[in-house]
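User: I've been trying to design a sequence by hand for this structure and keep getting stuck. Would you show me what you'd pick, starting by listing the structure so we're on the same page?

Assistant: Good idea, let's start from the same input. This is the structure you sent:
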């Protein structure tokens, strides 16, 4: 919990009304964000909570599989009309840039909408946003997803609306040893993720 509190002390992470109100976007504090990172550095890096789900193809995906590579974990839903698509596009662009630079990385996007994020809906979303193979959109039942939301301190209310889901919108960069290193707000930029991966890879 201490690492999360340090992050929350540096930024107000988005808990949008339906992730589509356009309000509440987190802004890092310039006095607490270390200049060595483009995001919000985790003061005391810990091993990221485990994730074991299936993607839209029915393929089992485990976070532990990607030890030795960088991974970005985020929480999305396909019916979102503004914040989630932007996050997906920025992280997908980051994957593309990192691959070109010789730093293969992965995105694990965990659904916050077990009812609306069907395999068909996520397949359409992936095609629309031209998500790369290393961008894994992970699905599950509410019973499967809630423990992961809780482990990552994600506030999610999939029953808040018939068309929108209120949830925390942030991303965490996990290093090659599986530790949480940098947090980003819903305004994450591909260039910032790339810069942070480069710095961590050299450290």
């Amino acid at each position: 919990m201490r690492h999360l509190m340090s992050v929350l002390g540096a930024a107000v992470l988005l808990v949008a009304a339906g992730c589509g109100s356009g309000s509440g976007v987190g802004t890092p504090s310039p006095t607490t964000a270390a200049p060595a990172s483009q995001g919000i550095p985790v003061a005391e890096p810990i091993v990221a909570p485990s994730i074991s789900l299936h993607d839209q193809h029915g393929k089992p995906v485990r976070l532990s599989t990607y030890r030795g590579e960088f991974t970005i974990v985020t929480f999305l839903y396909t019916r979102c009309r503004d914040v989630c698509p932007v996050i997906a596009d920025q992280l997908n662009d980051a994957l593309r840039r990192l691959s070109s630079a010789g730093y293969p990385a992965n995105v694990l996007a965990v659904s916050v909408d077990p009812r609306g994020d069907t395999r068909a809906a996520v397949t359409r979303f992936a095609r629309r946003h031209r998500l790369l193979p290393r961008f894994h959109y992970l699905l599950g039942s509410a019973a499967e997803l809630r423990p992961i939301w809780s482990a990552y301190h994600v506030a999610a209310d999939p029953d808040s609306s018939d068309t929108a889901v209120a949830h925390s919108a942030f991303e965490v960069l996990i290093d090659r040893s599986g530790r949480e290193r940098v947090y980003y707000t819903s305004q994450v930029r591909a260039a910032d993720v790339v810069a942070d991966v480069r710095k961590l890879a050299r450290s």
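That's my pick for every position. To get oriented when you compare it with your attempt: Confidence is low (pLDDT under 50) at residues 1-18, 20-35. The first helix runs from residue 2 to 10.
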